Write a sequence for this structure.
């Protein structure tokens, strides 16, 4: 019996893009269901009753929630291509550490870049560059965080690349000038079809951010 896979998602979500990349890397066919986050569907509320958030993956009628957990699940459920997580326990722990770092630091800091002004904005920009420099240090001379192949940390972080234009435009700064190695890595990832087809147009993301700023009363 063929797998039935549905992804409940929202187009601009970097967390949802993680899952799209993971599914593409593993060659999994799935149904994409765009969700209205201001009027959540009965299916989303049924399948993710705890957090009521996207992305939510439904595999043969059973749901898996939270993007990094979903990516791990995809890695375990579809063994076909190169694994996202290394087999060595220490390396696995380190990989999870950096993915967790991205979850805990990057999203909250970058949200301030497009919602804050004045000193708070300048502080957010400084914190974001510090985060990127730490990630550059972890990347080292490897082509990907996963080594020779796209790995768990790459899948966790590269979706934010399509938001970089919005961060730079709202914050009036250049990420490439500060962290050229991160931009070179992102461009390398974009050469993979699984990534380039999953990431959204940066200009479209920026237009969406402008709408959010108006809604939040920032502009």
């Amino acid at each position: 019996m063929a797998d039935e896979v549905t992804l409940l998602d929202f187009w601009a979500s970097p967390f949802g893009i993680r899952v799209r990349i993971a599914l593409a890397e593993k060659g999994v066919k799935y149904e994409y269901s765009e969700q209205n986050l201001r009027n959540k569907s009965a299916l989303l509320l049924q399948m993710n009753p705890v957090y009521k958030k996207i992305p939510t993956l439904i595999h043969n009628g059973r749901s898996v929630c939270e993007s990094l957990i979903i990516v791990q699940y995809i890695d375990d459920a579809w063994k076909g291509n190169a694994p996202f997580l290394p087999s060595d326990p220490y390396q696995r722990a380190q990989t999870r550490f950096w993915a967790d770092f991205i979850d805990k630091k990057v999203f909250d800091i970058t949200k301030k870049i497009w919602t804050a002004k004045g000193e708070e904005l300048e502080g957010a920009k400084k914190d974001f560059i510090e985060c990127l420099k730490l990630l550059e240090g972890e990347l080292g001379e490897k082509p990907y965080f996963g080594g020779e192949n796209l790995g768990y940390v790459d899948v966790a972080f590269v979706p934010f690349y399509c938001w970089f234009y919005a961060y730079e435009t709202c914050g009036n700064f250049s990420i490439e000038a500060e962290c050229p190695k991160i931009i070179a890595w992102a461009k390398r990832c974009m050469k993979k079809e699984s990534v380039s087809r999953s990431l959204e147009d940066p200009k479209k993301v920026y237009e969406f951010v402008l709408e959010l700023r108006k809604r939040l009363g920032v502009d």
Summary: Strands lie at 5-9, 31-34, 56-59, 62-65.
